[in-house]
Amino acid sequence: PLIILPLDFPDTPDISNPYQALSYSTAELKHWAMAPDNPAILEEHNIPIAFTAHGLEEKEFRTNLIRSVERGLSESTALAALTTTPAEQMGLGNQLGKIKTGYLANLTVVDGNYFKEKSEIISTWVGGEEYPIKPKYNVSAVGKWSLTIGKTPYQLELKKKTSSYSGHIVQDSTEYKLSNLKVDGWFISWEIRWDSTAAVSRFTGHIIDNRMEGVAHDLQLNWKALRTGGLEIEEENKVPETRSELSVFYPEGTYGLENPDLESQTVLIQNTTLWTCGKQGKLEGIDILFKDGKVKEIGSGIKPSKVGIIIDGSGKHVTPGLIDCHSHSAAFSINEGSQSVTAEVRIQDVLNSDDIAIYRELAGGLTMANILHGSANTIGGQNAVIKLRWGATPEKLLYKNAMPGIKFALGENVKQSNWGDDHTTRYPQTRMGVEQILRDAFTSAVEYQKEWDDYGNNKNKWKKKIPPRRDLELDALVEILEGKRQIHCHSYRQDEILMLTRVAEDFGFTIGTFQHVLEGYKIADRLKEHGANASTFSDWWAYKYEVIDAIPYNGALMTDVGVTVSFNSDSQELARRMNTEAAKGVKYGGLSEEEALKLVTLNPAIQLGIDQWVGSLEIGKDADFVIWSEHPLSTTAICEQTWIDGIQYFSLEKDKRIQKRDKDLRKKLVNKILSQKDNEKKEEWKHQEEESPEYYHCQEEF
Question: Among candidates 391, 507, 370, which has minimal Cα distance to 448?
């Protein structure tokens, strides 16, 4: 594939203020150091490229291209990227891109090598017509001059460094610096400020051999000058750039992996306390063997294999990887709130595998998350169940075994109760409108489903008809009707929860999981009767009016009735310690420790329809596990290692090494930047990173 490559390399950031330097991430500093290498790297991998000047000022394009050539891009590839490659891609390779008989006379004339900074472009030809760039009459103004403005004598010195002029005027011992000094062919102009309180004076004139004359416009005086001596043209002693020695991390920036191609390992943990969260329950002094990304064996005295890792589990506790059934981490956007039904949008299309929240959550023992659309509308977008494979691409985060899902929402958010006066026109604005829009949507889906069934079953009838129009929004709702996509519904109040169960039963489907469901304890028997699960908060209450009846005993009370309950985070920060969230099930409601741990392991796996692969440590299940320093429900427990599919994605030991590596790297980058010549433009630095929004709750920002 052709890559049209921009050459808008970042300017050297101003980090002279140590506090200002903190606003630049290490990834951005690395981008500054490595961006000019990009063309050469693509060339080395035989990827065809063309260049675009998008985002650049007029002279920056060639300057940046020369930088890339100095860093290893061959001149032949650079020339092709400017000529033959784009011509061929446009299907005009027989007319453009070459100096050849019969081709259009589009030319660039240079007084030397185009890829050398000292060379200047003389003219450009388009269709045989010349457009001069460099003046035909190029007169040098370098030297010492005797200047007279009106009748007042001065001394003028003009210097040239590479292609730019500088100069100053001297009267007695006072020196006045010229600004905006330009020499263009025979013409010269400059500006000068005689003192800090005076206005700028503008001068224009022309050069004839060793004399100049012109007008001082703001002084309303004529001026003239005679050259009295010469000055050498200063050549800038510029050292050619070299390729950056830095390597790419995955993802780029702090905590990134140096090698993303990780392979599962054979791991034997000996003499440990194992929380299986399965039928075997909690086992003391036991061994567990992981092989080929799966749980291979559980027992005593397991013999270690010749190849693999042996971990002494004495005093340690091993649990399944924790699962968060309601998360908004690792996504560039959360809510599509422009209308009430947006079933066609997909979180998987905006996954952000570079989100640092992934690494932080791994450090808390989290291995899986259900990334949900927000609660801005009644029927929101489709979810994405992911494994927290740090360093992988968005596609590799997705857990293929997960049942497709979709986010619904009820209550204040969808009727825009707290959105302000500018949001009072979108339907619905009341709770009765929320129910009606649900019924309208599924009525449309039933009709759509019937039409497609008829089209599939009666081909002869449709021979002379236009096939039904494909509607991605209704496709998702039909999947719900057919039991192929489950609903995760944001909810608080009992009346609304009851309403949705009745709507679902009227259309012949079952709600998968009620999210938050803070009044679930009032109607737990109805939830069980309907067959819905509940993913709730451990102890959130009183953060807005519709949760006024929330109690911390909610999870335990629903569990006692027989509802499958999980605790979720709905927060990038809280997702880092889901183990202590589970412990609140013991404090509030008296769940056993094993049942409490299931609130963040097996139960969310059941809710997501993936419990045959994850959620417990049983033979044949995925090797997703966490090693804790002590009892996992303790507030002093530390996650020492987190493994997914038999691959270690976090460990305290590795984390220490990475932190040292990143501190040393940042120090090296800062020192390199501080040693650079200051940017003359001093423009505001454009940050390059796109980050996930800080959504702490699904209703916080729309």
Answer: 507
Strands 282-291 vs 267-275: parallel, antiparallel or unpaired: antiparallel
Average pLDDT rounded to a whole number, residues 445-467: 93
List all residues 6 or more positions away from 162 whose beta carbon is below 8 Å from its beta carbon: 117, 118, 234, 235, 236
* Amino acid symbol at 351: L
3 state SS of 658: helix
Which structural domains are found in the chain, ordered by start?
1-97+654-702 (no CATH), 105-239 (2.40.128), 322-433+469-613 (3.20.20.140)
Q: What is the DSSP string of 145-193?
A: EEEEETTEEEEEEEEEETTEEEEEEEETTEEEEEEEEEEETTEEEEEE-
Ramachandran region, residue 590 (left: φ > 0; alpha: ψ -120 to 50; beta: rest) = left
Q: Are 194 and 183 in contact (CB under 8 A)?
A: no
Which of these, 640, 644, 583, 582, lies nearest to 272 by C-alpha position?
A: 640
At residue 627, φ and ψ (nearest 5 deg) are -105, 120
Q: Are 224 and 212 within 8 A, CB to CB? A: yes
Cα–Cα distance for residue pair 548/538, rounded to 1 Å:
15
pTM for the full model?
0.86
Q: Name the pLDDT band for 702 (thresholds 50, 70, 90).
A: very low
Interacting residues of 387 by C-beta distance below 8 A, sequence separation 6+: 367, 368, 397, 399, 624, 644, 645
- Count other C-beta atoms under 10 Å from residue 55's C-beta: 11
Give the distance from CA 492 to its chain's centroid.
32
Give the separation between CA 320 and CA 48, rounded to whole angstroms: 46
Distances (CA, A) of 611 to 379, 401, 440, 602: 26, 10, 34, 7
Rounded distance, CA 679 to CA 204, Å? 29
Measured CA distances, 444 to 110, 429, 437 (Å) = 67, 21, 11
601-647, pLDDT tens digit by residue? 999 999 999 999 999 999 999 999 999 999 999 999 999 999 999 99
- Residue 234 has a CB neighbour count (10 Å cut-off) of 12
Other C-beta atoms closer than 10 Å to the C-beta of 131 total 8
The b/e string for 282-299 (b: 16+ C-beta within 10 A; e otherwise) is bbeebbbbbbebbbbebe
Other residues' Cβ atoms within 10 Å of the Cβ of residue 220: 8
The answer to whether 369 touches 388, Cβ cutoff 8 Å, is yes
Is there a contact between 358 and 390 (Cβ–Cβ < 8 Å)?
yes
Q: Is 146 exposed, middle or buried (0-12, 13-18, 19+ CB in 10 A)?
A: middle
Please give the Cα distance from 64 to 354 (Å, whole number). Answer: 28
157-176 tens-digit pLDDT: 999 887 789 999 999 889 99
CB 614 within 8 A of CB 621: yes
d(CA 232, CA 143): 8
Tell me how far apart the alpha carbons of residues 49 and 54 are, in angstroms, rounded to a whole number.
15
Rg of the chain on CA atoms, in Å:
35
pLDDT at position 139 is: 84
Cα–Cα distances in Å, from 689 out to 331, 355, 412, 640?
14, 11, 34, 30
